[in-house]
């Protein structure tokens, strides 16, 4: 590995050998070597505070000590690593604990499917099952939704660029306006109801509606509690299955284990991945209302559904949910984050920032094209890792590991504040605008 005069490691090998499809290494151009808790270090010894948390796959932090210990013990006693969907002790233990710690106390009753170990695979399984159960083909998705990059998941994803990558028409879906998409005055559930009710609308009765309670990739758009309840009611009334894609917002991101708990709704199918493995190891679940579990054995299978290392770490991570303490802490840190962001927005009104989100999924949306990207780039140069979201990358997104300490959170906010201050000064002087007019 070569360290350049700039003090940064050279990315030459990646530029030469890795496909152009690579993306995050372009936003964070260095070579990482070590990670612990909320910090990453690069080959030059530089430390970076992580406000990205592996896109939500590292809710319990990097190399969490308690989880790591269980993993090492398991490997050292030659515990089964790969098992397709054979019964293993590691899976048994995870299933029992998930039932006891997560489902039972919340009054939720689900059969648990292990699809391939990605969010997209959980979404595919949910769409397939909804179609099989209802015998109908249409799925309603929402504007600005993100559900993954495989064909079925893309068919209910909003982003034009990502959809285009499919290379084939994405069929059998209808996109409807998410909460707040049209204006504050339009109730988009009533709007959708008209389409479903009207025999002249051109929209046939869907098998399912798939929704994120907060659209993380789509720009941190938050659905109101009221809207989610009306959505559930509409689905019940019409016999439409409700699928909540909790791949990113689940596992505590918004403060509760499931993001829909605040609304008190009970989806028919729930997709979980990202942090369910607890340690950044690949794993996904599809939770299915028991009466809908009409799969034939092997009807949705895959080679890597039995990632036992992830079952071990997932089971250990559930310990965070045995009491309300973890949840309370996330809410408290969420408040701290919110007030920090609101201060920044108020300090630089000419940037026209708007604070969005809840829990430890928040961000600032900017009207000016390119501003959020510029801020994230500046933040990285100061040792803070954060990403943009939204169709036009208009939102600077903050999603640290949930185990972040208050002082780490404050440090990160300080770095972000300085970045915004500098960019604000440059945009005042016109420098930023000139650079972006090219
Ligand atoms: C990340 C994500 C997915 C896709 O998960 P992959 O593991 O990347 O396939 C699906 N839905 C949501 C809401 C996500 O955030």
From TrEMBL:
Keywords carried by this UniProt record: Aminotransferase, Pyridoxal phosphate, Transferase
Enzyme class: transferase
A Pfam match: Aminotran_3
CDD domains registered for this protein in UniProt: OAT_like (cd00610)
Family annotation (InterPro entries): Aminotrans_3 (IPR005814), Aminotrans_3_PPA_site (IPR049704), Dat (IPR004637), Ectoine_EctB (IPR012773), PyrdxlP-dep_Trfase (IPR015424), PyrdxlP-dep_Trfase_major (IPR015421), PyrdxlP-dep_Trfase_small (IPR015422)
A GO term for molecular function: diaminobutyrate-2-oxoglutarate transaminase activity
Pathway: Amine and polyamine biosynthesis; ectoine biosynthesis; L-ectoine from L-aspartate 4-semialdehyde: step 1/3
E.C. numbers: 2.6.1.76
Names of the cofactor(s): pyridoxal 5'-phosphate
Membership in a protein family: Belongs to the class-III pyridoxal-phosphate-dependent aminotransferase family.
Protein name according to UniProt: Diaminobutyrate--2-oxoglutarate transaminase
Gene from which the chain derives: ectB
């Amino acid at each position: 590995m070569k360290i350049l005069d700039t003090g940064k490691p050279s990315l030459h090998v990646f530029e030469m050998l890795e496909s152009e499809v690579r993306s995050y290494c372009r936003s964070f151009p260095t070579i990482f070597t070590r990670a612990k808790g909320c910090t990453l270090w690069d080959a030059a010894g530089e430390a970076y505070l992580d406000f990205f948390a592996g896109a939500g796959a590292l809710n319990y932090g990097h190399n969490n000590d308690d989880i790591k210990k269980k993993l090492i013990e398991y490997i050292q006693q030659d515990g089964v690593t790969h098992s397709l969907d054979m019964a293993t002790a590691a899976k048994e233990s995870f299933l029992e604990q998930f039932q006891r710690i997560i489902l039972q106390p919340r009054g939720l009753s689900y059969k648990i499917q292990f699809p391939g170990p990605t969010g997209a695979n959980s979404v595919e399984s949910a769409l397939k099952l909804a179609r099989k159960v209802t015998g109908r083909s249409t799925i309603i998705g929402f504007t600005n939704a993100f559900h993954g990059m495989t064909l079925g998941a893309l068919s209910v994803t909003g982003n034009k660029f990502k959809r285009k990558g499919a290379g084939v028409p994405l069929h059998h879906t209808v996109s409807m306006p998410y909460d707040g998409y049209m204006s504050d005055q339009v109730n988009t559930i009533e709007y959708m109801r008209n389409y479903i009710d009207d025999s002249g609308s051109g929209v046939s009765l869907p098998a399912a509606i798939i929704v994120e309670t907060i659209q993380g990739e789509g720009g941190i758009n938050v659905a109101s509690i009221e809207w989610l309840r009306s959505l559930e009611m509409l689905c019940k009334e019409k016999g439409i299955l409700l699928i909540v894609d909790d791949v990113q917002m689940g596992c505590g991101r918004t403060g509760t284990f499931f993001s829909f708990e605040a609304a008190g709704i009970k989806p028919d199918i729930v997709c979980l991945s990202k942090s369910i493995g607890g340690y950044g190891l690949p794993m996904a679940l599809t939770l299915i209302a028991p009466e809908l579990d009409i799969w034939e054995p092997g009807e949705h299978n895959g080679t890597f559904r039995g990632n036992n290392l992830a079952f071990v770490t997932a089971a250990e991570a559930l310990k965070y949910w045995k009491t309300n303490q973890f949840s309370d802490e996330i809410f408290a840190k969420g408040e701290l984050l919110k007030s920090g962001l609101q201060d920044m927005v108020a300090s630089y009104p000419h940037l026209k920032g708007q604070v969005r989100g809840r829990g430890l999924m928040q961000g600032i949306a900017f009207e000016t094209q390119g501003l959020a990207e510029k801020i994230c780039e500046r933040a990285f140069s100061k040792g803070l890792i954060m990403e943009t979201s939204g169709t036009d990358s208009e939102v600077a997104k903050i999603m640290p590991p949930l185990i972040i300490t208050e002082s780490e959170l404050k440090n990160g906010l300080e770095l972000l504040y300085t970045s915004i201050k500098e960019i604000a000064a440059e945009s005042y002087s016109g420098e930023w605008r000139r650079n972006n007019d090219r």
